[in-house]
Amino acid sequence: MHKTPNDWNIDIHDSGSESTPLLSSESQASTDSVIFQDSETSDLECTPTNTYFNYGSVETCSIKSTGTVIPKRPPPLAQDHALVIPLSLNTSCPLNVTQDRCYEIHNTDMIFNNEKYESNSKQSILNDFTSKFLSQSCLLEQEAVCNDIKPKQSSLVTVFSIWNTILGSSMLTIPWGIQMAGFIPGIILILLMSGFCLYTAYCLLLVHKYHGGHKGIEVMQLSRIYLNKSAEYVAKIFSITVLLGATIAYWVLMTNFLYNSVNFIYDSIIATPEHFAADNASHPSEVLCPKNTIYNNISIIHENTYNTLGPIWDLYKTVPIFLGLLIFPFLNFSSPTFFTKFNSLGTASIIYLIIFVLVKSASWGINMDDTEWEINWSLKSSFPALSGMLAMSFFIHNIIITVMQSNHDQSKNGRDLSIAYLLVTLTYIIVGVVFYICFPLSKSCIEDNVLNNFQKWSGLTVGARIVLLFQLLTVFPLLAYMLRVQMLSSICKTSNRCCVILVNIILVCVCIMFAVFVPYIGTIVRYTGALSGFIYIFTLPSLLYLAILKEQKKLTIFSMLLHTSIPILGFLNLIAQFFITEK
Fold first, then answer.
1. Rg value, the chain, Cα
2. 78 phi, psi to nearest 5 deg
3. Are 9 and 15 in contact (CB under 8 A)?
4. What is the rounded CA–CA span in Å between residue 290 and residue 298?
């Protein structure tokens, strides 16, 4: 039966990107005649899709509709000739999100439902079709917009995007993780976890490619399609868990950086020379050991040297609250666009941390004797602290599909992903190993935030804290925005200002509670990484890959055993976190 162009179905999906990571959602509206209205942006009208920590957020802007249904996209056509037909633009969305509103109709000879149309009739068919939606002037204008859009990026940009996305403040905890696992076992564990994470991320890319490589499809949607709806809910819950763990970890770090930065500035302006002399006499070296070792029993001693402002400025009691008062107004922005302008700070802070560690380590020299070399070959019972932390440190799985879709040559996705993971692994090993070998005090003194091992007056340390504080102050509102949108979109279809403020208040209170009672960044990162990694790194990629092997009738006993053992390892990694004694 012949179908006229009026019967064709056209999908309208709007997407775009603002540079900043971990959210995935879809927004779709249908209408027969599209009417666009200006409206105030709300959290659920422009929902960030597949966003991530340091790299970017992708927004899906919904179309205002009258409630009728837009037909779906016509069948794909052959590929000799391309004619771009852009559909109408949502004026509430920026121009850089219009590329998905354009699609290509290929081939001089058009084939619809096995009926062939000659070239002389093709133009009249297209004119009948486009007249339903656009005037001629709008058509020409939007065709120019669509033709100018260059959404693809080179392999080099893709590699460094992944590198920048995965790396972050977790570099501060790597030396502590190596100390918890043992030197040589720690290096081996980093290599193993990197290999696991690379393989499972690549499995997700294979599943997405098998599904057709469509935009707007992420792990959540693939879980629903190839597993079941329960798997989609699990993916959503643990995507929220990753975001929540990241916001808590960032809050603890911001509290620490704010506290020490303010103390340094205060002492530089107010403190007397006698105060500095006494401080330097009590700590003649720039390196600190905030732990007290007595008969091999290690207990945390809070550093009180910096308490020059009295009880109103306490690291574990008042500073988290002051931070909440400072940052809460920024959390209520309806759009995070302002903060994405500072994303370059992410790369700058990473480079600064690498230089900081290398410079400090070079100034100390190697500080390991023969006995320590021999001891550090043994695996410590606390090694799961490193494996749990690495699950978070290598985590990019819930947005890797979106990141790789921007790659210009999709056939090189596997190669580029491997190179990116290799760079991340080398960065972690260089930072962790160099700091561990050169640290001049007992290795048990290494903190889960290595900046805590330095005096407040150490020049490079002051710079690191200030740079990281400013970077986290710009990243945190983005994380909070992503978390809020994903929570609200899972609970309700619409949101209002009261819901936004309520969610922000709850989030800030949770972060303050952790900063007051559990201010240990290593503990937060390893539990979050082990829990979310069990689902996103070990379980969902393995199950999804098994599902497509089964559909292709390529499932073998070896593949079954391999991909069922990976989730078991993730589960053991999670359980082991509860049996670690903090040191």
1. 27
2. -70, 180
3. no
4. 10
Tokens coding 100: 């998905």
Chain segment 517-528, per-residue pLDDT in tens: 999 999 999 999
Instruction: Quote the pLDDT of residue 460.
Output: 85
Q: What is the pTM of this model?
A: 0.71
Q: Are 190 and 432 in contact (CB under 8 A)?
A: yes
CA nearest 30: which of 55, 52, 13? 13
Dihedral, CA atoms, 205, 12, 108, 150, nearest 10 degrees?
-60
How far is Cα of residue 483 from the mean position of the Cα atoms in its chain? 11
CB-based burial, 381-413: b 16+ in 10 Å, e otherwise: ebbbbbbbbbbbbbbbbbbbbbbbbbbeeeeeb
The pLDDT of residue 344 is 67
Q: Place 81 in a pLDDT band, splitting at 50, 70 and 90.
A: very low
For 420, half-sphere exposure in the C-beta direction (CA atoms, 13 angstrom radius) is 31
HSE on the CB side for 405, CA within 13 Å? Answer: 21
> Three-state SS string across 88-108, please?
CCCCCCCHHHCHHHEEEEECC
3-state DSSP assignment of residue 488: helix
Contact 475, 456 (CB under 8 A): no
Collapsing DSSP states into helix, strand and coil, what is residue 293?
A: strand
How far is the CA of 244 from the CAs of 145, 191, 377, 510, 526, in angstroms? 38, 27, 36, 9, 13
Q: Residue 56: which of 167, 149, 152, 162 has the closest Cα?
A: 162
Tally of CB atoms within 10 A around 561: 9
Which residue bears the tokens 């790659």?
407
Residue 310, CA distances (Å) to 97, 263, 285, 304, 361 in order? 51, 11, 25, 10, 34
